[in-house]
Amino acid sequence: MWGRPMGSAGVPLLLLLLLVVGALCRIAGSEGGKEPPAHFLAQDKGECHFLNGTQRVRYLVRYIYDRQEIARFDSDLGKFVAVTELGQPAADYWDSDKVYMQYLRAEVDRFCRYNYGVLQGIHVIGRRAKPTVTISPTKADPASPNTILLCTATGFYPLEIDIRWLKNGRPEKEGVAFGEELQNGDWTYQRQVMLETRPERGDVYACQVGHASLEAPVTVQWEPRSSNSARSKLWTGAVGAVLGVAFLAVGLSLYLKSKKGESLATSFQQPADQAGKHPAYDRMKNGWS
Ligand SMILES: *[C@@H]1O[C@H](CO)[C@@H](O)[C@H](O)[C@H]1NC(C)=O
User: Fold this and answer.
1) 167 CB neighbour count, 10 Å cutoff
2) Is residue 287 part of a domain?
3) Could you tell me which of 4, 70, 79, 66 has the C-alpha nearest to residue 36?
4) pTM above 0.85, yes or no
5) 166 in a structural domain
6) Same domain, yes or no: 104 and 34
7) Which atom of ligand 1 is nearest to the CA of 52?
8) Whose CA is nearest to atom 5 of ligand 1?
9) Residue 142, domain member (yes or no)
10) Mean pLDDT by groups of 10 residues along the chain of 289 residues
């Protein structure tokens, strides 16, 4: 027979939602007089289900033999029920124990509601962390006109979150793929929702995120870059053309000036005997050459 499951009741604070008291124990005098196997795993799990804060609470104690749940106490029924045939004798045995049943029926208050208050006090229950929302566009295939828009919400708690894609203000359903939630390891989660789409000029995409931490949904917008980048290319070209013309004009004028100087110098006839002796002429020549 199973031992009386005191384990779940003895540890009020640490294990609330899922209490696992893994225990290797002997089933003494198992039915049919069969010897139990040399190794087996017996577990009991106490679960508190809070359906509306502490308004509606359901307490379950599951008894698991190896990987199979064989019997459970259900506070909604106020007794044990067998889940498999193997659990029937145990369920009957525990149900006949008036003191133990009384004790288990009080667990919704003593164990569940009490610890709910404790966890609320240390902000485990009621904890809220706002998501950070970003959009990152990627091209799966450079040849394809399709773009993959990835909306990432990260750093939020609790897990429940509503992430949706809007195209020009309307919910987009096609080409949407939801990623699995990831645990950041610091009591926050992240989740990605992908949209594969063919953006056209003027389209406005938005990723809208609703979460318990937010008073109103957060919306992040994205517009196709093509129109923007075309405009910036036009500007670059225009500025380049203006600069080019300006440099050409300056260069041309310098060239013409030097050409003029050159022709003046070469056409200037100096008296042979004054060559190299006339300072004004030397200055003029050095300046031009
Ligand atoms: C949840 O509990 C509150 C009281 O705390 C009650 O006003 C509300 O109606 C309940 N909601 C549901 C869905 O039962």
Assistant:
1) 18
2) no
3) 66
4) no
5) yes
6) yes
7) 1
8) 55
9) yes
10) 39 36 38 74 95 95 96 97 96 96 96 95 91 92 88 96 96 94 94 94 95 97 71 72 80 73 47 50 51
